[in-house]
Amino acid sequence: MDQEKAAEIKRKVREFITSNFYVPEASRLTDQSSLLDSGIVDSTGMLEVIAFLESDFTIQVSDRDLVPENLDSIERIAAYIARRRAEGPPT
């Protein structure tokens, strides 16, 4: 994924997070900040994040992908989206 596409994905994810969840100091939220450890997103909120990813990025998030390594930060979410898009639609 090129830098421009990665930056756009991160921008969209950041916008969704800061618009839909309580982020006390949005300027301090880095791409590497843990959304779970910081308390920004809880388990119910993660369902909202997944619905957003599936609708806005046209990907399917499988149960096996519901791990922090894929969804715990803006950077990890962007990388996950890039991998899913590269894989193509499920068969």
Structure description:
- The chain is mainly α.
- It has a single domain, classed as ACP-like (Non-ribosomal Peptide Synthetase Peptidyl Carrier Protein, Chain A, Orthogonal Bundle), CATH 1.10.1200.
- It is built from 4 helices and no strands.
- The chain is globular and about 35 Å long.
Enumerate the spans where pLDDT stays under 50 for 5 or more consecutive residues.
Answer: none
Give the beta-strand count.
0
CATH superfamily: ACP-like
- By CATH, the topology is Non-ribosomal Peptide Synthetase Peptidyl Carrier Protein, Chain A
Oligomer: single chain
Report the principal-axis shape: globular
What is the first-to-last residue Cα distance? 22 Å
Instruction: Supply the CATH class.
Output: Mainly Alpha
How much helix, percentage-wise, in residues? Answer: 40-55%
The biggest sheet, with number of strands, parallel, antiparallel or mixed sense and barrel status, is: none
Q: If classified by CATH, what would the architecture be?
A: Orthogonal Bundle
Number of separate structural domains: 1
The number of helical runs is 4
Integer-rounded radius of gyration: 12 Å
Mean pLDDT over all positions: 93
SSE pattern? HHHH
Residues in β-strands, percent = under 5%
Label the structural class.
Answer: mainly alpha
